[in-house]
């Protein structure tokens, strides 16, 4: 059974138009620029395919070649949409470069080089597909982890369209009937499948991005941009386990801004919010990139450092001095920017709750001793039950050695 190529292209144009309207609708509804670009690309592509199918025989080759250039423009729009979706800028020269390359190539070829024209067009589409896959692959390596279908589909699309380069140039370089061969039918079928599959992938990306945004919002403090209590605890559990596997100690710092209630009462809540943002910046600037920090209460902050207690005390002193030297002055007068800090450290496998409890005890000792000071916990936390149970479950007893209770 033979498939009519005009029918396949008509079906592809209708599907692309419907999918383009759907993408545009969601793009305007959700205010996502990338969806608007994708939807516009589908609509422009659908229009060019429809006009090429029904008008190329009537208006001649020049009309068809112009529509092909519009089709390559849509490929550039899809590539730019992928860039916009991941927060990159549009590259307008690259947007029209494929269409310009097509026009320059076909105007310099003899009229009978239909197979060569097809291979050049396929190469342009394949290049745009590779660029789109590259954009998605770069983002996959940075943040998202289950993105392989969105990379594989453009790659496969480009691979299928690379086939006519080999077939047209190597096997059928002078075959005028190549444009009506089974390979062209296969390309038309692939175009329909790619149009449908790409939209599913687009919505998968949008859904995954929405989940990531909501998850980030649930774990971050909106005022300071730091972890909130939940996000800080989740991140710390991973770091503590990693350090425990290497047998390395960890240290927790708890910060409490001194007389914060009086700052709010004297200068107002907006000034208090500015003090919170200032202190969060001081903490972040005085920690290493491997350290974690978060806002765990109103004016309470915490940090986890993969280091011994002694190093944690040095870092705490550095934060205290930097915050005291901020020198904030309002219309009502200077603002006292001091902080009390409690520090607690423990051996590998110490639970976060134990470290926080010990650091909190040291914090209250710092407040009782006059504030604006750093106090270290006097005793090491002893509750290592979670890590001991995990280690005991994975350890293998050695023959001839007694089992420790």
Write up this protein.
The protein has 405 residues and is α+β, with helices and mostly antiparallel strands. The protein folds into two domains: 5-219, Rhopdopsin 7-helix transmembrane proteins (Up-down Bundle), CATH 1.20.1070; 229-387, 2-Layer Sandwich (Alpha-Beta Plaits), CATH 3.30.70.270. Helix content is 67%, strand content 8%. It has helices at residues 5-30, 33-59, 61-85, 92-107, 114-142, 148-171, 182-219, 229-245, 260-267, 269-285, 309-324, 352-368, 385-394; strands at 250-257, 292-295, 300-305, 329-330, 333-334, 339-346, 374-376. Strands 2-3-1-6-7 form a five-stranded mixed beta sheet, sandwiched between helices. It has a two-stranded antiparallel sheet with strand order 4-5. Strand 2 and strand 3 form a beta hairpin. Helix 9 (260-267) crosses helix 10. It is elongated and about 95 Å long. The termini are far apart. The model is unreliable at 140-145 and 394-405 (pLDDT under 50).
């Amino acid at each position: 059974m033979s498939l009519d190529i005009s029918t396949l292209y008509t079906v592809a144009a209708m599907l692309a138009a419907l999918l383009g309207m759907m993408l545009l609708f969601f793009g305007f509804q959700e205010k996502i620029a990338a969806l608007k670009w994708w939807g516009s690309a589908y609509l422009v592509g659908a229009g060019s395919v429809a006009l090429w199918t029904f008008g190329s025989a009537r208006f001649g080759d020049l009309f068809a070649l112009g529509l092909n250039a519009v089709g390559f423009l849509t490929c550039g729009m899809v590539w730019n949409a992928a860039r916009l979706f991941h927060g990159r800028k549009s590259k307008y020269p690259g947007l029209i470069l494929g269409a310009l390359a097509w026009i320059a190539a076909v105007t310099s070829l003899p009229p009978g080089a239909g197979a060569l024209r097809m291979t050049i067009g396929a190469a342009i589409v394949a290049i745009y597909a590779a660029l789109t896959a590259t954009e998605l692959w770069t983002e996959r390596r940075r943040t998202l982890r289950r993105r392989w279908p969105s990379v594989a589909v453009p790659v496969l699309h480009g691979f299928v369209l690379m086939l006519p380069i080999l077939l047209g140039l190597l096997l059928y370089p002078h075959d005028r009937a190549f444009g009506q061969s089974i390979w062209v039918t296969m390309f038309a079928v692939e175009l329909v499948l790619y149009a449908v599959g790409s939209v599913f992938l687009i919505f998968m990306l949008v859904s995954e991005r929405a989940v990531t945004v909501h998850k980030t919002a649930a774990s971050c403090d909106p005022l300071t941009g730091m972890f909130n209590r939940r996000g800080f605890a989740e991140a710390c559990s991973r770091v503590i386990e990693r350090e425990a596997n290497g047998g390395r100690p960890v240290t927790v710092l708890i910060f409490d801004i001194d007389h914060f209630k009086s700052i709010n009462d004297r200068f107002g809540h907006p000034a208090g919010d500015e003090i919170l943002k200032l202190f969060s910046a001081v903490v972040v600037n005085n920690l290493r990139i491997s350290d974690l920090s978060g806002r765990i209460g109103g004016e309470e902050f915490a940090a986890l450092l993969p280091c011994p207690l002694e190093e944690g005390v040095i870092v705490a002193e550095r934060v205290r001095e930097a915050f005291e030297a901020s020198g904030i002055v309002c219309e009502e007068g200077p603002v006292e920017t001091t902080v009390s800090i409690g520090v607690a450290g423990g051996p590998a496998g110490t639970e976060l709750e134990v470290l926080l409890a010990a650091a909190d005890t040291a914090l209250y000792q710092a407040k009782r001793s006059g504030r604006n000071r750093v106090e270290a916990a006097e005793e090491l936390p002893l509750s290592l039950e979670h890590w001991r149970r995990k280690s005991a479950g994975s350890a293998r007893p050695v023959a001839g050695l007694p089992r420790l209770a």
